[in-house]
Design a protein that fits this description.
The chain is of the alpha+beta class. The chain is 25% helix and 20% strand. The chain folds into 2 domains: 3-156 and 442-580, no CATH class; 164-412, D-Maltodextrin-Binding Protein, domain 2, CATH 3.40.190. The radius of gyration is 25 Å and the shape is globular.
């Protein structure tokens, strides 16, 4: 029986980690697995510098002293940790460089390989899509097969509940562009439920999906994603890249207007990117633009001179963006919210209220007309939008219904066109109204990372054994009841250039192979009994079903002991970050 250590505290994390909630871990404490018995909650008193926390264990617990490993603090007792990442843009760079690079602050495995880093650098300079995809494949095989640094479980998707007669476009990245949707004949209003009050409609500071959903209807970025994940012109019509890959010259759409009738100019895009990067804005997505020349220095306060930024208006319809180094993926960022234009005169006039109805001025297909806070948001078609002739939905209403069960009831009464549902209802809905459920692409891996600095996961064969002993298909089918999801052996999702399936990268479920790797580890580590091997896995609250299943499979398939620490997201991330910052 594996042991659980559980701690409290919760907050939303503002960056892109795709996880719901999490928890804090005690430094220097570990619980060993023990025999059968009733599960109950006990309180363990930590040393004076720590705190008392409720710990769910199989009684009686055995407290053991944890020895710090070289380069790893005494509190960093994990061998494995759970994470997830939903991609921001459609290039493998967003996972293999941003998240999994040995130099990334977003991974906590402490793995390192020079060849991998060289391949990343080559991919960033490679503008031929096929050649770039091959470089990403080579890099992924080094990380996943040669090092077994991570054990992906599945790839994310998103499940939508909407009327089957609606023609809907859902891009793999970002929010759906409802201006491209089509309703049944005679219907001109779309009722699209949202589960929370939008925290803000400030285009530079919002990070949540609810705010982005509404902003995407009332604002145009330079480009937008289509249903296949390709970028299409929006505020811009074309761009060129210099031979060295550093300078993007972007040509804006002539005749595009703000909702108050003012022309949209290149300076408005300069103002938007500059405001995003200003330290006072405190924009969480500012880091995504650090590839722009001078962006990081300006955002971190190293300089307060915006003229050092590589963003310039050449004329009213020409925007120039200069990068600090070539980045072959940068065109995909042109479709992200970090390139929204802004009207500084409106922000200066209305201050914090600039994003309220009556004050807000946008350049998108819809106008922000109503926002009854905590109740609903409504947008109406913008008759002056450059593409207004192709917009057939006249009005979108976003009622705020917090409880998914309540939203489902409203949908089933015919009060909503796009609904929501509790996860426990998915089986019934698939049986009774399968045409109302649409499984949509949401590229990104859900995965376990292995700690290279702590035994036994400092050993390659042990990592291979752990990776090979997870029955991912059984977890999806029987535990999560999501049989439509794809198991993952690599971290680059399907549909992204560079994707590799099971058999091409990483490790598939194979108990015999796993036991062979385990035997090799035991010989190398001079361990006679697998029951003497203990693996500590940390994860955040909300993932109990999946990670408890992993722990049980490791114990059953390998005969080892597994300790589980469950944490609230904020403290979980803080603790992992502290481990990452230890020299």
């Amino acid at each position: 029986m594996y042991v659980k250590l559980s701690l409290g505290g919760e907050r939303m994390f503002s960056k892109k980690w795709y996880i719901l909630a999490s928890v804090m871990v005690l430094a220097g404490l570990a619980l060993t697995a023990c025999g059968g018995g009733e599960i109950q909650t006990v309180v363990i008193t930590a040393p004076p510098e720590q705190v008392e926390v409720p710990v769910e264990v199989t009684v009686p617990p055995e407290i053991v002293e944890v020895t710090a490993e070289p380069g790893l603090g005494a509190g960093c007792t994990y061998n494995a940790y759970r994470m997830g990442w939903v991609m921001d843009y459609g290039d493998a760079e967003n996972v293999l460089n941003v998240v999994f690079s040995p130099e990334s602050p977003f991974q906590y495995s402490f793995w390192y390989d020079e060849t991998y880093l060289e391949l990343v650098d080559q991919a960033l300079m490679e503008f031929d899509p096929a050649a770039r995809a091959e470089l990403w494949k080579q890099a992924e095989r080094i990380m996943m097969t040669d090092y077994a640094a991570f054990a992906p479980i599945f790839y994310y998707d998103r499940t939508a509940l909407l009327r089957p007669e609606i023609e809907a476009v859902y891009p793999p990245f970002g929010s759906p562009p409802i201006k491209h949707w089509r309703l049944p004949e005679g219907q001109t209003t779309l009722r699209f439920v949202i589960g929370t009050e939008p925290p803000t409609l400030d285009v530079n500071t919002s990070t949540d999906t609810t705010s982005h959903l509404i902003q995407h209807q009332i604002m145009d970025s330079l480009y937008e994603y289509d249903g296949d994940g390709n970028i299409q012109p929006a505020g811009a019509v074309s761009y060129e890249v210099s031979e060295d890959g550093l300078v993007y010259t972007i040509h804006l759409r002539e005749g595009a207007l703000w909702s108050d009738g003012e022309p949209v100019t290149a300076q408005h895009y300069v103002d938007g990117i500059t405001r995003l990067l200003e330290p006072a804005t405190a924009a969480e997505y500012a880091w995504l633009m650090y590839i722009v020349q001078g962006a990081e220095a300006f955002n971190t306060g190293e300089t307060d001179d915006p003229s050092t930024l590589g963003v310039k208006a050449i004329d009213d319809l020409t925007l120039e963006i200069t990068l600090k180094q070539a980045a072959s993926y940068f065109d995909t960022i042109l479709a992200f919210s970090t390139t929204y234009p802004v009207r500084l005169d409106i922000i200066e006039e209305y201050g914090e209220l600039w994003a309220e109805p009556g004050n807000f001025v946008g350049n998108g297909a819809y106008l922000l007309t109503e926002w009854e806070h905590e109740n609903y948001v409504a947008v109406d078609k913008n008759p002056d939008y450059w593409g207004a002739d192709d917009v057939t939905i006249e009005r979108i209403e976003f009622p705020i219904i917090v409880e998914n069960a309540t939203a489902l009831a409203a949908y089933e009464r015919g009060e909503l066109d796009v609904g929501a549902f509790p996860s426990e209802e998915i089986t019934r809905l698939l049986e009774e109204t399968p045409d109302d459920i649409r499984v949509l692409v949401r590229p990104g891996p859900y995965y376990i990372g292995f700690n290279f600095l702590r035994p036994p996961t400092d050993n390659l064969n042990m990592r291979k054994a752990l990776a090979s002993s997870i029955n991912k298909r059984a977890i999806l089918d029987n535990v999560l009841e999501m049989p439509w999801r794809n198991v993952a052996c690599g971290v680059v999702p399907p549909g992204i250039p560079g994707y590799q399936g099971c058999g091409e990268v990483g490790y598939e479920f194979d108990v015999d192979a796993a036991l062979g790797y385990l035997d090799a580890y035991m010989a190398e580590a001079d361990v006679a009994d697998p029951g003497d091997i203990t693996v500590n896995i940390w994860y955040n609250r909300g993932n109990e079903d999946t990670l408890d299943a992993v722990a049980e499979q490791w114990e059953t398939n390998l005969g080892i002991k597994v300790n589980v620490a469950i944490m609230e997201w904020a403290a979980y991330l803080d603790t992992l970050d502290e481990c990452n910052n230890i020299d």
